[in-house]
Amino acid sequence: MTNLDVVHSPEVAGQSNGHSMVGKLRRVMACSPRTAGWDDPSRFARWKDLGFLHAPDVAVAKSQHEKLCAILESAGAEVVQMAASSSLTLDAVYAHDASLPTDFGVILMHPGKANRVSEARAQRDFLAAGGIRGLGEVTAPGDTEAGDIVWLDSHTLVVGHGYRTNPAGIAQMRDMLKPHGVEVLTAPLPYGPGPSACLHLMSLISLLDEETALVDLPWLAVETVELLKARGYRFIEIDYSERDTLACNVLSLGEKRLVAIEANIKTNQRMREAGFDVITFPGSEICINGSGGPTCLTRPLLRD
């Protein structure tokens, strides 16, 4: 695991690419519990306000995060660890949400969860120090979180409209990407547990390869289902008894390899039966407790 500013490989230094959810993962940013301040008593004390199910076991969370990073590295991905900042909260471990890498530079999000706005600034400074250029940033009154964003192909971006991403934010994304030939489509999200819960588009869809999507079908809008079908995707449905343990939150490493939470035995078996190599890790504290799975814990920076 390296810090971004000491990466010198000419193949990856200064590059970012977010136009695939399923290409071979080559470089990924993570934010450890230590970096996010889980050891800081004042920040730890806010766990209930931030929506964690119970007070985190920090030692277990660290161990689980380390296991995830080891899986990523063993799969051939370079893991870069974000720099610590006093502005970060416990939520910063879910590094996916505050930025969106593109072929044209990184777009900084303006998270709909107020305590996470500082994460975008921290990622901006960290990525810029590593030579990764910016394309733009979403600003108030726009709200966007990258957990609501799915690339269907290199020219089509689907953005979920829910409590964390609003129409003003989607409009700003569209304005930034249209000159580069990227179409931004809107996917309405359900009310679900209500505005206090974290229900991202990627809570309901994980693309596994170019033609397969893991879905929580009853919670998807009809137009989103029809869009995926029109694009030729086949569906694997999660086992609905595993919804609360984030069964639909699965990270593709490329080449039909996936990372999933080990607790979701039935859903993981369905993916294996469909021909995928499913690598699991324990996520009780780092994932389920804070409602963020392996995709949430990772910000892919470069895929083939």
Helix content: 10-25%
The coarse silhouette is globular
Oligomer: single chain
Low-pLDDT stretches = 3-14
Q: Span from first to last CA? A: 20 Å
- Structural class, by secondary structure, is alpha/beta
Range of strand content = 15-25%
Q: Reading side by side through the largest sheet, how are the strands ordered? A: 2-1-15
- Total strands: the figure is 15
Taking Cα atoms only, what radius of gyration do you get, to the nearest Å? Answer: 17 Å
**SSE string, helix = H, strand = E?**
EHHEEEHEEEHEEEHEEEHEHE
* Largest β-sheet summary: 3 strands, mixed
Instruction: Average the pLDDT over all residues and give the rounded result.
Output: 93
Tally of separate helices? 7
Characterise this structure.
With 304 residues, this protein is α/β, with parallel strands linked by helices. The chain has helices at residues 41-44, 58-74, 117-129, 167-177, 222-230, 265-273, 284-288; strands at 25-30, 78-81, 99-102, 105-108, 134-137, 149-153, 156-161, 183-188, 205-209, 212-215, 234-237, 251-254, 257-261, 277-281, 299-303. β3 and β4 (105-108) form a beta hairpin. The two termini are 20 Å apart.
What is shown here, in short?
This protein has 304 residues and is of the alpha/beta class. The protein has helices at 41-44, 58-74, 117-129, 167-177, 222-230, 265-273, 284-288, and strands at residues 25-30, 78-81, 99-102, 105-108, 134-137, 149-153, 156-161, 183-188, 205-209, 212-215, 234-237, 251-254, 257-261, 277-281, 299-303.
List the helices and strands and how they pair.
Blueprint: E1 25-30, H1 41-44, H2 58-74, E2 78-81, E3 99-102, E4 105-108, H3 117-129, E5 134-137, E6 149-153, E7 156-161, H4 167-177, E8 183-188, E9 205-209, E10 212-215, H5 222-230, E11 234-237, E12 251-254, E13 257-261, H6 265-273, E14 277-281, H7 284-288, E15 299-303
Parallel strand pairs: 1-2, 4-5, 7-8, 10-11, 13-14
Antiparallel strand pairs: 1-15, 3-4, 6-7, 9-10, 12-13
